[in-house]
Amino acid sequence: xxxxxxxxxxxxxxxxxxxxxxxALLGEVLPKASDAACEVVVCTxxxxxxxxxxxxxxxxxxxxxxxxxxxxxxxxxxxxxxAMLQELGVSYVIIGHSERREYFAETDATVSLKIGxxxxxxxxxxxxxxxxxxxxxxxxxxxxIRTQIKIDLANVSAADMGKVVVAYEPIWAxxxxxxxxxxxxxxVCKLIRDTLAELFGxxxxxxxxxxxxxxxxxxxxxxxxxxxDIDGGLIGGAxxxxxxxxxxxxxxx
Length: 253
Fold this sequence. Notes:
alpha/beta, globular, 12 helices, about 250 residues, 8-stranded parallel sheet, TIM Barrel, 8 strands, single chain
């Protein structure tokens, strides 16, 4: 964690919590974030966003969405545009999460378009990249992640890159209870930063917040956050428990 970069603890609620449940959980999270030394974000399902934006208004907690469509409007049944999110008061949006890539045929090409749409609307994209266990074991992890970054950010300028957050998700450590060791997580986050430096210059790369998104929890957060290239976490299951999420926020100090 580098003091020059913004530290971000972002909760990804995935497909959990009705509007009433979202209001209750946020009510518990807000006090735990009131003296946070980091940016705190909760990324809720679409239907919870209006409630989340209302409850979080005036607090230290920012609200994020879990996806968007790259077109401004049109015949895309079931989709949501960047402008719709922006008008609600949403600040962040997760793009290219491994579950979107695996279950909903998200490609690097669509991820690239979505990054552009988010930036144009003034939203902060949290770009997710990462490798499967098979890719890691085959020795193509570095190649795979570098390719993702190059395609996903192909149309982003160096000036705009400063507004993008990158999250490293070792797919083999999501929801499995397995966690990359702090050394493994640091190695890949440094690889990401080195790749950004090649594409956008060292100064820009140094300014980008890189989050770790593989089963970070209350027990391992402090050690992971102590690594020089890990600037926060994209938290799954632990973000659904206010006490656990609060402990991770506290560890970011």
